[in-house]
Specification:
heterodimer; A: alpha+beta; Glutaredoxin; 2 domains; five-stranded mixed sheet; 7 helices; flat; B: alpha/beta; Rossmann fold; Ubiquitin-like (UB roll); 23 helices; 16 strands
Chain lengths: 174, 518
């Protein structure tokens, strides 16, 4: 029994937790491996695999990097290098709702800076952060191709144009 | 027979409520017992009228817009299903002046057809260019494209025919056509619009490129920010395969061509062709040094055509109507038409396809109708985040690759972003540097570090720390970035910065001094 564990009950709990954790990791590995098997025949399969893993788990779990690396005959560092290069791939789960506000020039011309400030103040988060209650993640985006109906945002994958702070907050119930 | 009602599926239209409008029309029609068939079309690109609803009537398609769900009851009361009068009535779609005055060659069917109906596409002369190309040799196709004067619409303006010829002459067991649909420039949405509204023209253009160069596999690399474009493209590819347009035997010719859509992951720099290729190969989207040219060593080291969406979409009309027909539009060395995207703070925002040669003033003031806020125009950024800011004094510049270059600007992907007089040009210059810092792939020091130093210099300028020295430093830094970067991200970031500094010097006065003076 490790030194910091004082009774059998605690020890049993610890073992149970570990078993539970390794089981989830095991399960995770199986799911990641299945995604790799499904996409490995593509020419240049890594990006499609990372997208699919993120679709499955909501982020790229740390353990997935090793599994992907093994399947594609790459080093874990190489896979990490790719995953961390792209803004889309998350290292942790996003909040329940994801608000992406366009910060690019066409939206700036229609007040996107003020919009971003208002939302950040209201939610008490900065760009690329999640509220303390894990309800909302706020992300900047540089162009949604909605430059003719600026300012624009994407809320949980749905686009909105000529949008105001009130409408954004209403859509996420905040 | 059921009445056809068109409600766009275009993201811009949906962002303004088109999905809800379509649902409300369907619900109301079923309640009223009207036999209505709702077609989700592409947008005509008149975004101040979106969601624009059209009804097919004996006198042609008539339009109403901008329609909100609150208008539906009144529209039914006004008998809009037979084209009845209503305050949102716009007349026949084809007669709307913004549309009527255009020369729509590339976008000729966008908005008119059901995007995923191959029958619609054929009924509007689609696939004629491909059928003609199938009767020609590869050399003849390349010659037609070269003679048309078509230049890369992504921004670089390199002659498309010459690029194709390099790939055609290269020998390899496998060649590729890669469509660069990574449209990340703010103020541009032409690629998105055509992929959502007329995907078959891109498919047709890519097949023709394949026939011309001997490539049998095509990829469309587009953005994760464009989910609807991805869905529509994938659906159209499926339809094209089922109809024998794509596959082992393109239209029964015995020639093979197939297309796959690939999604980027939110990296602006992947719009640069070599980092796009790295990204497709599953690597970090880092820029490659040239040579080797992608035309010789591109995707997976094989000869690859990398063309912008609009370049490829302009090919079918060239093969359909001939090189001369296309070349007759335009001015100087800028031949054919260009879909100008008018965005930002502008009254009539949208896509306007026309031959090269309109002046910037005509585009902003006449076609765009001035600012949306009604305030005076102060600056116009042309060509995306790496394009120069133009003051009103340069509004006589004709829309042409060379004319813009002469004025230290670029037309890029033809996005025009309008700002009113409330814009702070020092802030815009700082943003250009900040954007470069966020999106730099990190390969070249002037881009990676220079952009960070750039934001710091502007901050010091704003605080009034030795302003003259900062301006000198900023100009020097821009010089280094311009000549010391491998690609356009680091190399062109100086355009917005220097143009802001040159044309709007008053905005670069230290703020601290202003306060002191007060």
């Amino acid at each position: 029994m490790p030194d910091n564990v004082h009774n059998k009950q605690e020890f049993d709990n610890m073992l149970e937790r570990e078993a539970c954790m390794s089981e989830t990791t095991e399960d995770q590995n199986v799911r990641v491996a299945a995604i790799c098997d499904q996409l490995i025949t593509l020419e240049g399969p890594l990006l499609p695999i990372l997208h699919e893993v993120q679709e499955e788990f909501g982020y790229i779990p740390d353990g997935a990097l090793q599994t992907i690396a093994k399947k594609l005959n790459l080093s874990r560092a190489e896979v990490h290098g790719v995953a961390s290069f792209y803004h889309d791939f998350r290292e942790e789960k996003a909040g329940k709702h994801v608000i992406k506000i366009c910060r690019a020039e066409a939206c700036q011309a229609m007040g996107a800076d003020a919009l971003g400030d208002q939302i950040r103040r209201h939610l008490k988060v900065d760009w690329s952060q999640t509220t303390a209650d894990r309800k909302i993640t706020l992300e900047p985006v540089f162009c949604l191709g909605l430059c003719a109906c600026a300012p624009a945002a994407m809320i949980d994958g749905k686009v909105v144009g000529r949008v105001s702070a009130d409408r954004i907050l209403q859509k996420v119930g905040s | 027979m059921s009445i056809k009602v068109y409600v766009p599926l275009d993201s811009g239209s949906v962002a303004l409520g088109a999905d809800d409008v379509a649902a409300a029309i369907a619900a109301k029609a079923s309640k009223a017992g009207s036999d209505v068939k709702i077609v989700r079309n592409g947008s005509f690109g008149m975004y101040w009228l979106e969601p624009m609803v059209e009804v097919e009537t004996p006198r042609g398609r008539v339009a109403y817009g901008p329609v909100s769900t609150d208008d539906i009851d009144a529209l039914f009361e006004a008998d809009f299903l037979t084209g009845g009068p209503h305050k949102l009535y716009l007349g026949r779609t084809q007669d709307i002046p913004f549309l009527k005055s255009q020369s729509r060659l590339t976008f000729q069917r966008c908005g008119i057809v059901d995007p995923v109906s191959l029958d619609d596409y054929r009924a509007n002369d689609g696939l004629t260019g491909l059928e003609n190309a199938l009767k020609m040799t590869d050399e003849e196709i390349v010659k037609a494209v070269t003679d048309s004067g078509l230049r890369g619409r992504g921004g670089a303006g390199f002659p498309t025919g010459i690029k194709w010829n390099t790939v055609r002459e290269a020998s390899a067991d496998q060649k590729y056509i890669v469509c660069n649909a990574d449209e990340g420039d703010s103020g541009t949405f032409a690629d998105r619009m055509i992929m959502e509204g007329e995907p078959f023209v891109l498919i047709e253009g890519m097949i023709i490129a394949g026939l011309a160069t001997g490539a049998t596999k095509g990829y469309v690399y587009t953005r994760s920010e464009y989910p609807t474009a991805i869905d529509v493209m994938n659906e159209a590819i499926k339809v094209a395969r089922a109809a024998g347009v794509l596959g082992d035997n393109v239209l029964g010719s015995g020639k093979a061509f197939d297309i796959e859509v690939r999604m980027g992951a939110g990296a602006y720099v992947c719009g640069e062709e070599t980092s796009l290729l790295n990204s497709m190969e599953g690597k970090r989207g880092v820029v490659r040094a040239k040579p080797p040219l992608p035309a010789l060593e591109g995707f997976l080291g094989r000869p690859t055509v990398v063309n912008n969406v609009i370049s490829l979409c302009s090919v079918p009309v060239i093969l359909e109507k001939g090189a001369e027909y296309y070349r007759d539009y335009g001015m100087g060395r800028s031949r054919g038409t260009i879909p100008i995207q008018i965005a930002g703070n502008v009254k009539h925002s949208g896509l306007y396809e026309v031959g090269f040669g309109l002046t910037l003033g005509e585009i902003v003031e006449q076609i765009g109708g001035g600012t949306a806020t009604g305030r005076p125009v102060k600056a116009v950024q042309v060509g995306g985040p790496l394009g120069a800011y133009f003051p009103k004094e340069l509004f006589d510049t004709p829309f042409d690759y060379e004319e813009f270059a002469k004025r230290d600007g670029l037309i890029g992907h033809a996005g025009v972003v309008v700002f009113d007089d409330t814009v702070d040009m020092m802030k815009q210059a700082r943003f250009a540097m900040e954007f470069c810092a966020i999106e730099s792939c990190g390969k070249c020091t002037p881009c990676r570090i220079g952009s960070i130093r750039g934001t710091e210099v502007v901050d010091k300028l704003e605080r009034g720390e030795q302003p003259e020295l900062q301006i000198e430093l900023l100009r020097d830094l821009c010089e280094t970035m311009k000549f010391g970067s491998l690609c356009a991200l680091g190399g062109f970031t100086p355009y917005p910065v220097l143009s802001a500094l040159t044309h709007f010097p008053d905005d670069f006065k230290p703020r601290a001094l202003d306060i002191a003076a007060e």
